[in-house]
Design a protein that fits this description.
Strand order of the largest sheet: 1-7-6-5-4-2-3
Number of helices: 8
Structural class: alpha/beta
Bound molecules: pyridoxal-5'-phosphate
Number of strands: 7
Shape: globular
Distance between the termini: 8 Å
Mean pLDDT: 97
Length: about 200
């Protein structure tokens, strides 16, 4: 059911792959885990102890919010930056992703299109928390079209789906790894089951 629903959602949104999660926050946990452990079953079992893994997620200070605890729930460490230069300088051998919160783009912050260039130059994924970005419905496909690696929506907000649901849209490798880092697999996402 999970795989079939994901394929249909990918068709509808133009994403390479998709996964129904137990909420946007659950998707944040599972994508963080995916970026650290990938599909390695030993590493998946080890989380949230991320010792020995690339476990740093770079995030702009202006994007910090109460929901980013979910990245830490998976075992990731957040590295805060303020400027474009700081963002580039913060990327190192332990970096596994850059987080971007679509609702927080104040003047002077690094915009998503620039973040994508910086990240993809270095082969890093961009994780976009777009929990409350629907409506407008165009956003369901816009972030995917921009090339974002993971785009996460809350099912219980503007999507008006079940309160306990969320959507992860994105690159095939990342969605597959996020699936393995979630229920029913024994993983950090095991408690975050999406009901049928
Ligand atoms: C609401 C919200 C979430 C969490 O979404 P759930 O579907 O309730 O888990 C995450 N990030 C942001 C920015 C939100 O507004």
């Amino acid at each position: 059911l999970e795989l079939t629903a994901g394929r249909r959602l990918a068709e509808l949104t133009g994403a390479e792959a998709a996964l129904v999660t137990g909420g946007c926050a659950a998707a944040l946990v599972q994508t963080a885990a995916a970026c650290m452990a990938g599909t390695d079953l030993e590493k998946i079992k080890q989380l949230p102890d991320s010792t020995g893994m690339q476990n740093e997620i770079v995030i702009q200070r202006a994007h910090r919010n109460q929901y980013d605890q979910s990245f830490r729930t998976a075992g990731a460490k957040l590295v805060e930056v303020s400027t474009h230069d700081e963002l580039e300088a913060a990327i190192g051998p332990r970096t596994c992703a850059i987080a971007h919160i679509a609702a927080y783009e104040p003047k002077g912050s690094v915009k998503l299109d620039e973040v994508l260039v910086i990240a993809h130059d270095r082969n890093l994924p961009v994780l976009v928390d777009a929990a409350a970005e629907l409506p407008p419905h165009e956003n369901l496909t816009r972030f995917v079209r921009m090339g974002c690696d993971a785009v996460m929506f809350s099912g219980g907000k503007g999507l008006r789906g079940p309160q306990s649901s969320g959507l992860l849209l994105g690159k095939k490798w990342l969605v597959e790894a996020a699936r393995l880092n979630g229920c029913p697999n024994h993983s950090v996402g095991r408690p975050m089951k999406a009901g049928k």
